[in-house]
Amino acid sequence: MAFSRDDIIPPMSTSSYDTALCIIPPASQCRHVDGLREVYDKAYGIWPPHINLIYPFVSPENLVQAQQQIQQCLERELEANDATSLELNEVGLFKHQKSSSIFLSEAQDTSTSFLGTLRQLCLESLGQKNARVDFHLTIGQVENEILLLEAFLLAKARLLPSLRFSVGALAILIRECRAGTNASPSMRLWGIVDIPTRVDVWKPQCPEFWIPHHQSASFSAETEQEECDAWSGKEGNAFMHFQSGPTYAYDAGSCNWVICTSFENDIASACKISIASYNIKTDSEYPPERDREPLVASNILSDTALADILVLQEVSDDFLSYFLNDTEVRKRYRFASHGPPDQLDIGPLRSMRNVVILSRWSFRWSSGPFHRKYMSPRHKGALIAQFMDLLASERMDLVVAGVHLTCGLTDGSVAAKHNQLKRLTGYLAENHASSPWIVAGDFDIATSAYTIDPAPKAKSITEQTAVLLSSLESGLNQAGLADAWSIARLEGKLDITMGDSEESYDGEAGATFDPRNNALAADSTNTFENRPQRYDRIFVRSHEALRVGHFNLFGVQSIASDHYGVRATLHITSPSTALTEPFAETARKMKVEHKEAATALSDPISLQSMLYRQDMIPTEKQMEVRQQAFELLKNVVLGTIDKQDHASSGVSLNMVAVGSYALGVWTADSDLDCLCVGSVSSKTFFKLVRQRLARARNRGIKILRKVEAKTGTMLELSVDGISADLHYCPAARIAERWSEFHGLSASDPIFNLPALSLRKLKSYRDFLYIQRTLPSLSAFRTAFRCIKLWAVQRGIYSSKFGYLSGTHITLMLTWICKKLRYQSGSVGPPDMVVSFFSYYANFDWTNELLFDAFFHESRPRYHRSAREPMVILGYHAPHSNIAHTSTTPGLQILMNEFRAAADVLSSPGITWAKFFGDPSSLKDSVQLHLSQMTEHFLATQHSFVTVEMQYWGRTLAKGKGLVGWIESRCLSLVVDIHKMLPELEVRIWPTRFTNDKADLKELKEYHGCYLIGLTRSETSRSSNKKESQLARQSLEKVLDRFLTQLRTDDKNYDSSTSWVDVSLAKPFEVRTLRLDNREWGDHAADIDPDSDDDDDFDDEGAEEDEKPLERTLPQRPKPTAIPVSTSKLRPASDVLNRLRWDPGLDPSDYIIGYEDRFLGAKEANLDKWKTEQTDEEFIPQHRILYFKKKGGDDGKGELVWERATRLDKVFGSGAGPMDRRYNL
């Protein structure tokens, strides 16, 4: 029935809250408004952005009649040419009892125009009287108690562009619940009422744009206390609903940021990409202080932070407006995910703290919050940027995710982080499976062991949460994401300032949140321990297209935020060629299988306890005593105790610890290894130091003896009863630049030193690299001590007898730790130990070298001799074999022991107590257990070779020298026996035996022996009686020859004070022997401190001066008009090292001419030249006459260095023509 305006219409009740008559703006106009509503309006997703005309409205059963009456009224009363446009450009506030609502409305002078007319006509058509209302579009709500939030949301609403649109229809909404679900009821579009208009105007239609498509029963099930989803599966992905947004580009013509329309990137010449992430810290107070903004911008634009892609967290409207109006920023970053909010046509950011991505290149992006529940931490979310065809070599897209995860170390926050990462990786896997990923931002994952380890005991988190926390990174690894910081650390590509400090705990290296050094971080943390944490991370899924090249922090020196920024440089590689790169190929060949420890072995605390019981971990008192001993020795050697002596010497000296003490793996019986680097010669240094040490006798320092080795001179000392070895490296330039030493590149010209100096420095340089690149120093130390204890117990811990040493274990274990970290993420000590034995039980020592592929990347150029069955290489030049004392029989012993240990550790029911033996029932755990292993050795060998020694001289230091000399010769006897009788298993026990039963300290003479066990190998065939007799005769010949060599060595053997003998013995003849525990280190050497005879302390070859060898027929250089250099000729050792180790030269192209003592001048290939003094083919370098290239026009080759003519084309020294230098 149609009614006219004069008719009396029966009133229709408008009291139902299940229906509404409203105006809905076009969806295209609501992007900025809905961006705020999603965060601050609890009705978001239930109601559309709307202006209510009548609410409550009619009951649902009267909707049809109401729609007809209103439609008739509007058609009758409104004309098609009437203005139907609205403009909402004012921000207002409604105060309620406990909260306030922020809204948009028309200007005050137009608030009763078109909207008022519509409402009046609609009410009249329903028979209702009109009443005054405030028409508004709600933006959000805030609690009245939080006044700062109210001011903040009002300011944010004022940044919204004016909302202008034409009204084409009124929307009738009805509340509707989905059957069989717990989802919140939504206002659905029931119908519309058309408004007469002459133009085509947008009208509401189905499906409703305001109802999220991902809304489901699971949506409302999210609670504050989140439960954890498994990493596999997609059930958690419903929470991650991503919405695309416009990318802004800076337009220099209009000086404005405009919406980007082209996403093609032409970077075909790019070979690397840099990405930076920075949490710039937004204060909770409003209005925030803005004094940090220039400093933050300065940090971002600094050289250490400049990147191709920049991911920012906690970005506010004020900062982004300031930042994007900076001229330098506009030049560097032309594209941004969000424009400056103060630009009139650009709306505000969604929340108080936002993730924003800027870049040199255009990109598409979408974003989504991790939480959808009202009043949750809604600034936590992810922004996904897709760079189209960025990796031009394969036309691959690059996906960059900027994240900001939930903070805190509680059960709920850790569960939230787990689910957030799971949802993010699930989304990436589902939508970007074929692209490389970079995930960067503030992960807020606690990393400090000091913070994490005590948390379960303090009931801060449960044990289950602790396990979940440790699994977060492994979950990312499962998704193919690798931590760029960890990769750069493993490969030594970290910025040098990011190393561990002495006070740091595990997980604190590379910290980006450091309350100890960052005042802003200290102010923002509420925990008492204030430990550094590595919150900010960059993870990379390379997809064979990216490789980490460098990693550094920024914003460290100039503190502008509570976080430091992080930057990674990634090299672009082609998937088609990535597998053929040297590193990839080497890493593939040297893959380490991650062997997980059995449940009974997996607890690192039980392993640590076992090591304590075995006395493998020093006590606090022992650590304090050793530290004091080191400081005392350092002060004495450097002369800092005697200030006057230090000032008068004028010598630049530096002393550092090396070896087990430096690495923190020492035990109570370990030596204290020290290295001095100075500006004087070795002779001068030892003369000076000897005087200082002699004056310090009353301080507990004794000189035990001087040791001459192929690596130079060393002093054995006793410092407060602790054995110490003092080494010296003459390197004046390094001593002068010592403060820069840690940061020097391996290729720095300063390392162009004589071979002996490089060899001395090598231990410290290698230590620095290992310390800088190990994933976890504490885990490494635990695993190292475990392996060392095993080696000691099994009688294979002594490199001088061809077995393992601390250096062997360090290099072998370092490779395992780094490779496991690279392949599997964080790995604990138990897994390291089990994987160690499994890997080396199957390692092909005969054909392979052991080296760190993260350092060398490709197989090192090392010329292996037939006498090296085992090769282990360190890091820096010169490349020497750490296992140069290894022997074939010794390697067989090691392989058998590795296999046996791997089998035992994989057997069911094994525990650490069973593996090592429980020392709780023993009086002296290590020594008595060692005795048990010794008894096993004595009982299992078929026969023995005894090397006996007796000494009755007065100078006990010479007695120690005798023992050391015989020790050094025993290895050659083992090799000779194996050569003569290869079917025997030859095993020397690395400790001395004795039959003396009296107190050794009271004995005036010494009598001891070494035992070499002989056992027929399992693979050898049985021999008859005649063969056995021949074998015995052959063995006796070897022993007689060895004994003759010992007794005829006048330099080391004095028959008037000592006696040696070598003989065969049967098992019953040695059963009464016991371990010799005599301490030789308690006796000082007979050195007169005032003696001037210091020639013995001079290292031959350590200095650069070498006298030219005079030839019988000297050759003069031909006259030339070219000026002749008057500089000193570089020694042959420098030329040899340059030609051998320079990567641009091939040593096989060169020949060495040398003087043979009997045959005169001879030549040899440089690549076969022997530099080891123990090698049978060794020739002293002072006999080298010249170096020349092979071939040439006349077939004679071109001389590149000659001693007699002082010609040097390698370095340009000596008398070589100036224009021919470096012409190789």
TrEMBL record:
<dbReference type="InterPro" id="IPR007012">
    <property type="entry name" value="PolA_pol_cen_dom"/>
</dbReference>
<feature type="region of interest" description="Disordered">
    <location>
        <begin position="1082"/>
        <end position="1125"/>
    </location>
</feature>
<comment type="similarity">
    <text>Belongs to the poly(A) polymerase family.</text>
</comment>
<protein>
    <recommendedName>
        <fullName>polynucleotide adenylyltransferase</fullName>
        <ecNumber>2.7.7.19</ecNumber>
    </recommendedName>
</protein>
<dbReference type="InterPro" id="IPR036691">
    <property type="entry name" value="Endo/exonu/phosph_ase_sf"/>
</dbReference>
<feature type="domain" description="Polymerase nucleotidyl transferase">
    <location>
        <begin position="654"/>
        <end position="690"/>
    </location>
</feature>
<feature type="compositionally biased region" description="Acidic residues">
    <location>
        <begin position="1087"/>
        <end position="1107"/>
    </location>
</feature>
<dbReference type="Pfam" id="PF04457">
    <property type="entry name" value="MJ1316"/>
</dbReference>
<dbReference type="GO" id="GO:0005524">
    <property type="term" value="F:ATP binding"/>
</dbReference>
<dbReference type="GO" id="GO:1990817">
    <property type="term" value="F:poly(A) RNA polymerase activity"/>
</dbReference>
<dbReference type="GO" id="GO:0005634">
    <property type="term" value="C:nucleus"/>
</dbReference>
<feature type="domain" description="MJ1316 RNA cyclic group end recognition">
    <location>
        <begin position="1129"/>
        <end position="1203"/>
    </location>
</feature>
<dbReference type="GO" id="GO:0003723">
    <property type="term" value="F:RNA binding"/>
</dbReference>
<dbReference type="Pfam" id="PF01909">
    <property type="entry name" value="NTP_transf_2"/>
</dbReference>
<keyword id="KW-0539">Nucleus</keyword>
<dbReference type="GO" id="GO:0031123">
    <property type="term" value="P:RNA 3'-end processing"/>
</dbReference>
<keyword id="KW-0547">Nucleotide-binding</keyword>
<dbReference type="Pfam" id="PF04928">
    <property type="entry name" value="PAP_central"/>
</dbReference>
<dbReference type="Pfam" id="PF03372">
    <property type="entry name" value="Exo_endo_phos"/>
</dbReference>
<keyword id="KW-0507">mRNA processing</keyword>
<feature type="domain" description="Endonuclease/exonuclease/phosphatase">
    <location>
        <begin position="277"/>
        <end position="563"/>
    </location>
</feature>
<dbReference type="InterPro" id="IPR011068">
    <property type="entry name" value="NuclTrfase_I-like_C"/>
</dbReference>
<dbReference type="Pfam" id="PF13563">
    <property type="entry name" value="2_5_RNA_ligase2"/>
</dbReference>
<feature type="domain" description="Poly(A) polymerase central">
    <location>
        <begin position="780"/>
        <end position="906"/>
    </location>
</feature>
<keyword id="KW-0067">ATP-binding</keyword>
<dbReference type="InterPro" id="IPR005135">
    <property type="entry name" value="Endo/exonuclease/phosphatase"/>
</dbReference>
<dbReference type="InterPro" id="IPR040459">
    <property type="entry name" value="MJ1316"/>
</dbReference>
<keyword id="KW-0808">Transferase</keyword>
<dbReference type="InterPro" id="IPR043519">
    <property type="entry name" value="NT_sf"/>
</dbReference>
<dbReference type="GO" id="GO:0006397">
    <property type="term" value="P:mRNA processing"/>
</dbReference>
<dbReference type="InterPro" id="IPR002934">
    <property type="entry name" value="Polymerase_NTP_transf_dom"/>
</dbReference>
